[in-house]
Specification:
The protein is built from 15 helices and 13 strands. By secondary structure, it is α/β, with parallel strands linked by helices. The strands form 4 sheets. It has a 7-stranded parallel sheet with strand order 3-2-1-4-5-6-11, with helices on both faces. The structure holds nicotinamide-adenine-dinucleotide and 2'deoxy-thymidine-5'-diphospho-alpha-D-glucose.
Length: about 425
């Protein structure tokens, strides 16, 4: 497959691959509504620029978007350890998809992509996303999440100012953010609402909160037509196995300890990734400019509940496993510093105003997810070598995980985490 110097798949190659199913549209275009040279849409659908589309949520979004015939997608991704082109292998030669290997902090690259593709929207996923990594090394989080968002906003503003008429009316900047900006909840506190004051507790959360504030300022000061979504914990296919659910599946399959931080009673509000992608499409199409929308599935579960449910699914699905019952692999380890105790999302604004609803129950979504990881062992293997192993050592060595299983080990908490409750 030919690629240009920016890493984009050349359209002509895609045309040849799809020859049997394509026909000329009569407007100089031979590629499913795309101009053969520029790859810009000629059918009026308009392209979108996605950042971080090779990561977990971004790749699910791109796959769903193309499957739904949403128009062409330009995916700008730096391919950090979390970015994986294999997630998008099924659309790699789709003429509606182009990949650009690059950094959102590269202002010239971002500006040239906007000028060249004239997208109708930017959907901004790119971020450093793992809280534990932000504790070990916050620098990359400040750079990508804050400087990177600033760069995109600067370029998007310049681009927006150059637009006129329908193109200008239509343009949107959708900033994909997190519920962690709101901080932590006590067990009885009401769920996070769009008006809940920001109180980020980790370097990751602080960097995302900063980026949200920048987006807000660009709306109010420069009139950029942006919107923000703040979503709870996602799970589903293609999630990097540093995050709780895929980590537990991977470790349990190999008979490794399942490291539960502290007492395992921290609560997260889980949302299936496909529901999140649908929420983003809904906000993009019908959301009000300048608004923030909370996205959540109403599935509050303690970490221990999540881990033991994964174990029960593996007991059922991997009949021949030597490690049954997998629950015996649970090991309480030293807590995450500053660990937020509970997140919960009040998504009534998105539901009431835009008619979105989470469709996947946690039980069905988790079952599908475990099935996906079992069926995609090669994908897991591909992302868990080299630097992944270094990260596992770095994050878990000091937590006394050990090699053996211990279901009844006492919960371990750090003084700092304890003092923050
Ligand atoms: P991820 O870590 O799986 O993927 C991040 C992607 O961004 C990767 O493909 C990576 O290569 C790319 N990237 C990183 N730095 C970049 C840079 N400087 N330039 C270009 N690309 C870069 O993250 P995710 O879990 O898919 O999260 C996506 C977005 O959604 C993030 O903004 C995150 O804050 C937000 N979010 C995530 C969750 C969740 O549960 N995972 C929940 C709510 C919000
Ligand atoms: O709430 C949305 C956020 O959810 C997103 O913004 C983040 O990008 C995403 O990473 C996620 O953050 P969390 O810190 O909640 O996710 P993580 O999967 O890392 O951890 C989930 C919970 O499980 C958390 O309470 C910490 C705990 N945990 C995690 C790991 C990796 C463990 O007990 N053991 C572990 O080994």
């Amino acid at each position: 497959m030919a690629v240009c110097k920016l890493g984009r798949v050349q359209c002509w190659e895609a045309f040849v691959s799809f020859l049997p199913i394509l026909s000329a549209c009569g407007d100089g275009c031979y590629c499913m509504g795309l101009d053969r040279k520029t790859k810009k849409t000629v059918d009026g659908a308009g392209s979108i620029l996605v950042t971080g589309g090779a990561g977990f949520i971004g790749s699910n979004f791109v796959l769903d978007w193309l499957a739904a015939g949403g128009g062409s997608v330009v995916n700008l991704d730096k391919l950090t350890y979390a970015g994986n082109p294999a997630n998008l292998a099924s659309v790699a030669v789709d003429p509606a998809y182009s990949f650009v290997h690059g950094d959102i902090c590269d202002v010239e690259l971002v500006a040239s992509l906007l000028r060249e593709h004239r997208p109708r929207a930017v959907i901004h996923f790119a971020a450093e996303s793992h809280v534990d990594r932000s504790i070990v090394g916050p620098e990359a989080f400040l750079r990508t999440n804050i400087d990177g968002t600033f760069t995109l906003l600067r370029a998007a503003r310049e681009y927006y100012d150059s637009l006129a008429g329908e193109e200008r009316e239509r343009f949107r900047f959708l900033h994909v953010s997190t519920d962690e900006v709101y901080g932590t909840l006590t067990p009885e506190a009401p769920a996070f609402h769009e008006d809940t004051p920001y109180a980020p507790n980790s370097p990751y959360a602080a960097s995302k909160a900063s980026s949200d504030h920048l987006v807000r300022a660009w709306v109010h000061t420069y009139g950029l037509p942006a919107m923000i979504t703040n979503c709870s914990n996602n799970y589903g296919p293609y999630q990097f196995p540093e995050k709780l659910i895929p980590l537990m599946i991977a470790n349990a399959q190999q008979g490794k300890a399942l490291p539960v931080y502290g007492d395992g009673q921290q609560v997260r509000d889980w949302l299936y990734v496909g529901d999140h992608c649908r929420a983003l499409r809904t906000v993009l199409e019908r959301g009000r400019v300048g608004e923030t929308y909370n996205v959540g599935g109403g599935n509050q579960r303690s970490n221990l509940e999540v881990v033991t449910t994964v174990c029960a699914l593996l007991d059922e699905m991997v009949q021949e496993s030597k490690f049954k019952p997998h629950r015996q692999l649970v090991k309480y380890v030293t807590d995450r510093p500053g660990h937020d105790r509970r997140y919960a999302i009040d998504a009534r604004k998105l539901e009431g105003e835009l008619g979105w609803r989470a469709e996947e129950s946690f039980e069905a979504g988790l079952r599908k997810t475990v099935e996906w990881y079992l069926a995609n062992a090669a994908w897991v293997e591909g992302v868990t070598s080299g630097t992944y192993q270094q990260w596992m050592k770095q994050n878990y060595a000091g937590r006394e995980v050990g090699d053996s299983a211990s279901a009844v080990a006492k919960p371990k908490t750090t003084a700092v985490a304890e003092s923050m409750r």
